[in-house]
Prior knowledge:
alpha+beta; 13-stranded mixed β-sheet
Amino acid sequence: xxxxxxxxxxxxxxxxxxxxxxxxxxxxxxxxxxxxxxxxxxxxxxxxxxxxxxxxxxxxxxxxxxxxxxxxxxxxxxxxxxxxxxxxxxxxxxxxxxxxxxxxxxxxxxxxxxxxxxxxxxxxxxxxxxxxxxxxxxxxxxxxxxxxxxxxxxxxxxxxxxxxxxxxxxxxxxxxxxxxxxxxxxxxxxxxxxxxxxxxxxxxxxxxxxxxxxxxxxxxxxxxxxxxxxxxxxxxxxxxxxxxxxxxxxxxxxxxxxxxxxxxxxxxxxxxxxxxxxxxxxxxxxxxxxxxxxxxxxxxxxxxxxxxxxxxxxxxxxxxxxxxxxxxxxxxxxxxxxxxxxxxxxxxxxxxxxxxxxxxxxxxxxxxxxxxxxxxxxxxxxxxxxxxxxxxxx
Length: 394
């Protein structure tokens, strides 16, 4: 590690001010927006590299959880990794990420996730593609539904004033079924409902107030004549149909709706035609920080009774090196050291296997793992599931 860099949190108001200026410059956003962001995340959750009292690089650590196999795995999201231009090309970002990962390992955090501006940087410290985040749009005048008109009788109830706690339990019931969805903390929820200047955020529950079956949180962009869906959940087919009908009822004044969703968004099955368009499709990256804790923390398919012998190589965190046996039974996994090492992969190859983004056979063809036929078959059973995705950006 580079000895002339000091790692830690901002220690005084001057460094906090430097931090805001760096983030504003790196991400080309008004300084006022970063003040709001700093307060939401908490200055104590930022990590910086300092050199001679000057901040040479910074990032935010957002501790939360992520759902895999019906279990919430403790996760550290890394965000706003920024290095000012005068310090670029000196290895500052790699140094900052390395020290942060070592800190998280010491705190026994199993996994970390981030959205990459460049994959090359994060692959150097063990991150690899873990799942998808898609953006969609649809013209509301082309929204055709094949639904019973009795759906309109399902109430839509405005939540005023809007409070994120109202939506927590509905979201949890949805997220637990979706690999890669966040087990959100208050900062993530606040980012959904907190408006910027001259914005209004709207929230509606679907169904009865005592037992709602879904919700939608959105804002209206008059300039683009669009509804921007910030979050929506439906726990039943009727609730999903009612949400589409609710959007269609805006078509006299609003041209389109935009939202974030899965590459294979189940809401789209309810449309009469394929009228939704993909605006973008990006990949978030995941890093296994503690192999044993990560594998024991997630859930596995019920009915699978098998064991997998892994051989893992991790050049940055040597505690992850070696052989592991994963015994799966009753939807849970038990991990012990040792075994035959029948499935060989490095820490990057373990990430998309762990999340289920790629099958073992696909990773084998891509050169991310090697193994016996029996080991590949066992891994295919263990990590089977829906494609991992995330509706949140941090």
